[in-house]
Amino acid sequence: MVLAGPVEPRENRKAAGGRRETGKADGGGRRATALRLALMAVPLAFFAVFFAYPVAAIVTRGLRVGGRWRFGRIAEVMSDPATLDVLWFTCWQAVASTALTLAVALPGAYVFARFDFPGKGLLRAVVTVPFVLPTVVAGSAFLALLGRGGLLDELWGVRLDTSVWAILLAHVFFNYAVVVRTVGGLWAQLDPRQEEAARVLGASRLSAWRRVTLPALAPAVAAAALMVFLFTFTSFGVIQILGGPRYATLEVAIYRETAQLLDLPTAAVLSIVQFAAVAAVLALHAWTVRRRESALRLVDPGRTARRPKGSAQWALLWGVLAVVALLIVTPLAVLVERSLHGPDGYGFTYYEALRSAADSGGTFFVAPLEAVGNSLRYAAVATVFALVVGGLAAAALTRRAGRLVRGFDALLMLPLGTSAVTVGFGFLIALDEPPLDLRASWILVPLAQALVGVPFVVRTMLPVLRAVDHRLREAAAVLGASPWRVWREVDLPLVGRAVAVAAGFAFAVSLGEFGATVFLARPDHPTLPVAIARFLGRAGQLTYGQAMALSTILMLVCAGSLLALERIRTDRSGEF
Amino acid sequence: MTLLRLDEVTVRFGGRDALDAVDLEVAEHETVCVLGPSGSGKSTMLRVVAGLQPADTGRVWLAGRDQSGVPAHRRGVGLMFQDHQLFPQRDVGGNVAFGLRMRKVGRAEADRRVAELLELVGLPGAQRRPVDSLSGGEQQRVALARALAPRPKLLMLDEPLGQLDRGLRERLVVELRELFERLGTTVLAVTHDQGEAFALADRVVVMENGRIARTGTPLEVWRRPGTEFVARFLGFDNVVEAIVHGEVADTCWGKLPVPPGSRPGPGRLLVRPAGVRLTDPGEGLACTVAARTFRGDHVTLVLAPSDPAAPRLEASCALRDAPEAGARVGVAFDPADVVVLDPAP
Prior knowledge:
The complex is a heterodimer. Chain A is built from 25 helices and 6 strands. By secondary structure, chain A is mainly α. A two-stranded antiparallel ribbon of chain A has the order 1-2. In chain A, strand 3 and strand 4 form a beta hairpin. The longest helix of chain A has 36 residues, at 28-63. Chain A is globular and about 65 Å long. In chain B, the strands form 4 sheets. A 6-stranded mixed sheet of chain B has the order 6-7-8-3-9-10, sandwiched between helices. In chain B, a hairpin with a 3-residue loop joins strand 16 and strand 17 (298-305). In chain B, helix 2 crosses helix 3, helix 2 runs parallel beside helix 4 and helix 3 (107-120) packs across helix 4 (136-148). Chain B starts with a strand and ends with a strand. At the A-B interface, helix 2, helix 21 and helix 22 of A face strand 1, strand 4, strand 6 and helix 2 of B.
């Protein structure tokens, strides 16, 4: 949709900074543009087939009745005060959640980037765990913490489940890792001497940070803020559990219309509204960050981290640890506690019940424990897809040039803002005919999961790729490296760390993906989140306990994978 | 035989000519230094030859082949960047071997060549050292070894010694010159440092605003800078309006002797500091010593003529003869160090 043929020649000229008057002596420029287009081809095809087409199909299904378009529905739904209420709430809670997350998580990003302390790798994995938990489970965990009979209620008689604070806190719980990983990843590689130079020039510690580090971090902060905003804007499970009937986001409304009221036309209109709102936000983002990213001096992160010095730094470290303990560890601990708290006191009753299909009370055809293997396999395949598609896209986007590329950049972010329910349902409706009859294939699940992983890969790799000094690439080219070799020999090693972070994200997101997978996973091959949701959907202490046990397993699987990734990363960083 | 030829090469950056119809030839085994202030287009010239910057018009020929449309990685030239641009994630050996790997040289052969080159640049056995542990001079040597490793037909150096301290620079200039002579490398270097250019080059090319202002052996350029721009760039500030007739020129410093055969008529005159001789006060041009700078082996004096309208003069004299600041002196001129400059183009 953003691609228009005639734009090309102009892009070509822009890529060279408008320096060429005649085409006689060039060849490199046209070749570079061709290369970029070739790199873009794979992601574009992927997005056309596995995103645009299914979403278009389901929207068409909703708005086309008896072979005729019913655009009147749009005006009808939009003039409904209930829709406007939903829209207003969706917007303001997303803004508030984003602001709160940044305020709470930026100090955390600093601590992770600059301080060395025992257990850092473990802690980094711990803060990432919430991010991959199914939203329904996290919602329940917060309910257990803040709701009636919850921990706060027991201790101090405080209940927050009726206020919007529960939603905001749960959003911070989820997105803490986004900020810490995206911002902290770049922060760790910024040369501290830049700030020292500013200090020597008379800047106070704070103003050196504000004038030197903050502008360098701005692209990463903007990227993180955008992601948090998109997640909270399309928030589903958390609101469903903690919002009760009072609060509903667009995504919740779409789900209710699709799955409960079977009102496909209204769901289609709401999907379009959400899509338009997200597209507007992305356009705004692209416009504001366009000129901000610049070549930075990147250094080995191992050299920038030091043990905290002085009481202020120790206080900061302890403050961050306290926030992590309260906000992230406590809900997870409640989760684990519930999984172990059986009818006859503490034990592994619920875990043992997971080993056979019979104990699931007819919820499953297979032993629920098989979901672990399914989830890992799907997530691994999805990660490969996301890395290939996102890596190619990031490589194509490295050279900033023109509107075409920016449009492409924004396009890649759209799946984050599109209703997962819509995408999952769309897959079923659209991909069921030859040549793309994939409905019976297991590959649908990783494909849908990869769709959500790609934006992470792009957003994590791009700031680092763009910060690579272009003259390093030139040095490699003069030494005989073709453009492809330059990418492999110069860019890839320098972004190796970013690739690892991106892979971790993609894997984690795929593990926790729920909205689309719930439509796509076959009953005999459930993933962990799907299995958990099925347990939660049934009444009874045993199924609830099994849901908590599976959630705990998912949490451990995720923490384990992330820890392994951290290990690989530190082992290999010296070799790169 | 001509190895490199630039044929009317022009590069424009937003309406300004970085290179303006530049013609240049570099013969095989020759070392040519392009000298010019920053912004004169000398780095752009290297980038055009390397294929990193396309020329708007004109052609680049390497060993008789037109390079239009040949991408940088197929040109087979070496380029040493101003700030070295060593690959930070590779060790010294990995950096030096890079070009060899790109040419698919076998492992054993590459290892041998890396060792040989590190030996050559005076860093034997440094293969496994990380590049960020190197001093500026060592980085410089690694960058040189990396550029030399694939045996490029043309080696280009961008401000090769720019960031190094003086002692190291002077030593390296001598080493580089010996090395290039020994290897028979063809070298095109750019620098803004005339001392470096004169010490390194067989031939010097002075650039001014994207054009070649003067070319010749170091001695030729030093003796006859040609234009006032080149003279001033070489550090000669004693330039004055003059009318030449015969072997005498009228200037505001009085009558100056000029070498026989100088072009008669109005023009500008250069007096090298060595040609400004101090005499007893009352003889020649009356001046006051305005400033005195100790240069180690000699002293540079700034002399203010008693006529305030006349420009100040720079003179160099031996340490023991140097008068104190404020002393009154007379000045005479040596025709051997007086040059009539060409009119500005």
